Amino acid sequence: MTLQSDHREVRPGTAGHDPAEDRTAHQDGFSRNATGPLAGIVVADFSRVLAGPYCTMLLADMGATVIKVEGPGGDETRAWKPPVRDGESTYYMSINRNKRAIALDFADPQDLATARRLAGEADVLVENFKPGGLARFGLDYESVAADNPAVVYASITGFGTEGGASLPGYDLLVQAMSGLMSLTGSPETPAFRSGVAVFDVITGLHAAIGVLAALQERGRSGRGQLVEVNLMTSALSGMVNQTAGYLLSGKVPTRMGNEHPSIYPYEPLPTRDGEIVLAIGNDRQFRTLCGVLEAPALADDPRFATAPDRSHHRTELRPLLQELLSARSAAEWFDILTEARIPCAPINDVRGGVELADRLGLEPVVSVGEGGTELPGIRNPIGFSATPASYDLVPPGLDADRDAVLAWLDARPEHA
C-alpha cells in the first residue's frame, strides 16, 4: 500500500501511479498477499449486516485491503445463529473473509480519532449508517472528503436520503414495499419473501460497481466522489422485466407461482417421479421438445406454434406436456432432454447445487485462510486471467487486528 497522507499528492489508482508497486510494497505483516486487480487499494468498511459487507468482501477478494470497523458489540450478524461453525455464525462468516477487524467506540475520543484517521487514509470508504448518522462524528462524506478529497465514499441506505430517510432499511421490508413479495408464490398462496435477502445482495453488487466506476474516474481525474445506492432503487432495477412491464404497458403483474408471464413452458412440470424444470425460450426449442416427447404435431398446433400462442394457451398445453412427461422419471428426462440441448433442470437443494457446480468443473468451493486455519468458502464469481482473486484471510474475530491497524496508521507518513 502506498497511500499518501498528503492528499495533494498522487494516490493509488490515479494518473502517474504504478499499481504494480503496491503488489510488492509494504510486506509489513498487515498488507495482504493479494494478487487481484485491487491490490494496494485500502477500503475502510464502516458497514454491517449484509449489503455493505458483501460489497467489501467482493472488493477484498479482488485484492483490496479491507479494514472492518465495528462498534464494541460487533456486527449484528455475529449473533445471527444458527447455523454455526465452531460456535461462530456462518452468516457473518459468509460475507467477511479477507478483512482485518478493529472495534471502535465513536463515543470514545481516542477511538473516534482513530476512525477519522482511517477514513483519511482510505481509498474507499463504505458505510450503511442511517442517513446523516455519521455527520455528528465528522465521518460523513463532506467531512471525510475535506481531508481526503480523493476518497471514493460509498453510502448505502434503505430508501435514500430524502423522503425515505427515516425508514428502516431491512431487506424483507423492501421485498414487501417494492412489490417483489406480490410476485412470489402462487395465486392461491399469500405473498412470500425470497429465500435469500436478494435486494441486500443486489444492492451490494450495485455498490461494488459504483466503487469500481468511481475508482476508474479517479484514475483519470485524481478526484474522489460520493457513490450512493439504496435498497429500494436497487430492488426496482433488479425486478427488471416486471417493473418495466408495468411502466410500458400499464399492467400490474401478479403472482403466477413458478410460471413466467411471457413465455411457456417455463416452470417445473411433474414426471413419473418428481418434477423437472423446463425453460423453453423460443419456437425452435419447443419444436425440438415436441420431437423428443414423440409428439411433433404439438409444434404445428396453431394454439402452440409461437411463443405468444403458447403463453396464451398455457392451460391447454400444460396437461398435454404432463401426460407426455409421465412416461419417465425426472432424472431420465434430464439426461434425455439435456442430450437434445433442451433447457431443463432438476430441482436441487443447496447441497445439490454446490455438488452440481463442482461436477461441472466450476470449482465453486475455495479454501479461505492460510497456515492451518483454512475454512471452505464460495468462490468469488468473477474470474480474472491475469489478476485472480485471493482468499488469504479467514473472517476476523471482533477487534482481532486492533494492534496491527493502529501500527499501520502510526506508520503512515504524517505519523512516521
TrEMBL record:
The keyword Transferase applies. InterPro entries: CoA-transferase_III_domain, CoA-Trfase_fam_III, CoA-Trfase_III_dom3_sf, CoA-Trfase_III_dom_1_sf. Residues 1-11 have a biased composition (Basic and acidic residues). Keywords: Transferase. It comes from the Bacteria. The keyword Transferase applies. Residues 1-31 are annotated as: Disordered. GO terms for molecular function: CoA-transferase activity. Coiled coil: none annotated. It holds the Pfam family CoA_transf_3. PANTHER family: SUCCINATE--HYDROXYMETHYLGLUTARATE COA-TRANSFERASE. This is CoA transferase. It comes from Kocuria dechangensis. The lineage of its organism: Bacteria, Bacillati, Actinomycetota, Actinomycetes, Micrococcales.
